[in-house]
Amino acid sequence: MSRVAPLPDIVPVLSAGRHRNPRKGACFMEMASFLAGERWSDHPKCTHPLLASLARMVNDCLSDADRPRIAGRIPDVVGLTGDAFEVDVAIATRAAAAALPIAPAARQNVMAVGLLTAERALAGLGDGHEDLYALCRAAFAAAPEAHAWAQRYARDARTSERTFRRQTAPHIVSYAVEGIAAACVDDPGSRLVALLEECIDDTAARLARLSSAPLPQRERVVTGTA
User: Are 74 and 146 in contact (CB under 8 A)?
Assistant: First the structure.
């Protein structure tokens, strides 16, 4: 676990986008880079890449009024690193499941393909992930037409673990956050905050469990695409 630096005397206000230095403001991950003692960056090494991507997206999609609600979780992502494929699958699954039931209609089919792909990747991880399967079932039940379309569209599609990690999962997360932000619901900001908090807590728990028994380094193939 990385050592967390103390907060500076003047803490930059969280705002959207990248900032060249703290005087220009800061996003969620830029503040994480500072707390980790790294070079100022919105892509620090101190946080799992997909979790960091989710944090950047949520930071940018939240309103100025809602963004301070995530500031208290910045120290929690410092040191959450690792290369376990399970973490990528879990984050992608949670993001897609949160977005599918409420995303605008034009996005639901693609979001359903993303969740189906994540669910198929989940099946390759073995037992012990019933919480994520439950999220998939609930999301598909809330959007049955999109689920049926995704099953037809992605019936024979295949993607490797490498492709899922580098391309599919980041696309799922990006599309999911944008879908939640654009959803016609009373408080999309609260849903984005909840998604980020759940993924931070889940990632911390998974990395703690996996730290003494790392996954073998091998290429998996999972069915589905996004």
Answer: no
Query: Cα dist. 114→9, 96, 138 in Å?
Result: 43, 7, 15
Task: Kindly report, residue by residue over 73-114, the tens digit of the pLDDT.
Answer: 999 999 999 889 999 999 999 999 999 999 999 999 999 999
Tell me if residue 223 falls in helix, strand or coil.
strand
Average pLDDT, the chain: 87
Given the structure tokens 């099946």, which residue do they identify? 123
Report CA Rg, the chain. Answer: 17
pTM of structure: 0.86
Domain locations along the chain: 85-223
Residue of 77, 72, 39 lying closest to 55 (CA atoms): 77
Residues 6+ apart with CB under 8 A from 78: 2, 4, 32, 35, 36, 46, 47
Share of the chain above pLDDT 90, in %: 63
Two structure tokens written together for 17: 């986008």
pLDDT-flagged residues of the chain (< 70) = 1-12, 15, 17-25, 212-226
Q: How far apart are CA 73 and CA 75, in angstroms?
A: 6
Is the CB of residue 117 less than 8 Å from the CB of residue 226?
A: yes
